[in-house]
What does this fold into?
Amino acid sequence: MLALERRNLILEKLQEEKRVVVSELSQLYGVSEETIRRDLDKLDKDGLAVKSYGGAVINENTSIDMPFNIRKKKNVAGKQKIAELIAEMIQDGDHIAMDASTTSVFIAKAIKQKQRITLVTNSIEIVIELADVSDWDIISSGGRLKEGYLALVGPKAIEALDTYNVEIAIVSGKGFDLERGLTDSNEEFAQPKRVMMKSAKHRIVAVDKTKFGKVAFAQIAGLSEMDIVVTDEKPADEWLARFKQMGVRCYYPGR
It folds into this structure.
């Protein structure tokens, strides 16, 4: 097993269990404890984990973004619920913009049976997912590939996204706060989402329960700049009251 593969597996365990122990990882992967310590040193240096006595804990800092292949395995059930709800909102023939979040990949899978969709995205993963759909127009933003994230970013991506007008923009983020709204880990990820929302008649924010009450580094949009929030469980009453006050519709399973 390559060191990178082993570190990714360690990251997956950290996502699930929040903490790992050197001795247990050594036995699990059949390598020395010193090798595991080097793995944890690397994850700590990259800001993905925080070393602790005898092991490491997950870095919960919302400004730190996990690699795409790790994030897409987090709260899969919640993302699938969100995708099912949003699929009901999409009509044949719609023009849609979707960001490069893992939640959007689940949504793309859920709407594959729709017809004559025009989709604009800066997500390599979504382009690959929809490569076998025959009657859609799929438009990639172009731009610079962000290493490890399957996202196209930078001035060229922004310039391309800014030329399209769509019925629906679907975006997600790392944090969702009553005062700061939707936020992401850095400006490179936030800017394409802002452009998508600006170009859309209807702006859908797709955030699972783990994002509520968190604030990441770069703001994407305030509550006044979104029309619909879709999540995987009923939010607290204070959230529902603020949504009503701001004219934002909120959808969740059972609603």
